[in-house]
Each structure stands twice: as C-alpha cells, then as structure tokens.
Amino acid sequence: MIDRLADALPRLEIDVPNGSDGRYDERWQATVRAFQRDVGIKDSGVVGALTCSALHRAISVSGQWGC
C-alpha cells in the first residue's frame, strides 16, 4: 500500500514522507488524514475502500494518471 500511496499522492501535488522504511507510520497517517479532510471524508488515517476511491477519483479528475 505504501508504494501505491507514494505513487498516487504526488500526482495530486501532495508531499509524501521521505525516508520511509516501508511501514505505515505516523507520518504516513498524517498525510492520509490531511488528504481525507481535503476530500471531505472522515480523517481516520485508515486507507480503506472510501479513501482509495476518493484517491482514484481525485487523480482521474485532475488528469494526472500519467498514461
């Protein structure tokens, strides 16, 4: 999941934590919470179906798939 977030969030001009050791730590949770607040969903920090859907929708609308 970290790899997917590290790929997707920068497409939305969201900075991702540097130096991650592959763990979903506090820095990643804070980044995800900020994204969740920005898109109007509960800022739980959990990357579930609703967050994934919002992430894909935001990237789609922004045209940043990079295909």
UniProtKB/TrEMBL annotation:
Report the superkingdom from the record.
Bacteria
Q: Describe the location of the Peptidoglycan binding-like domain by residue ranges.
A: 14-55
Extract the InterPro entries matched here: Peptidoglycan-bd-like (IPR002477), PGBD-like_sf (IPR036365), PGBDSf (IPR036366)
Supply the Gene3D superfamilies for this chain: PGBD-like superfamily/PGBD
- Protein name, UniProt field: Peptidoglycan-binding protein
**Organism classification:** Bacteria, Bacillati, Actinomycetota, Actinomycetes, Pseudonocardiales
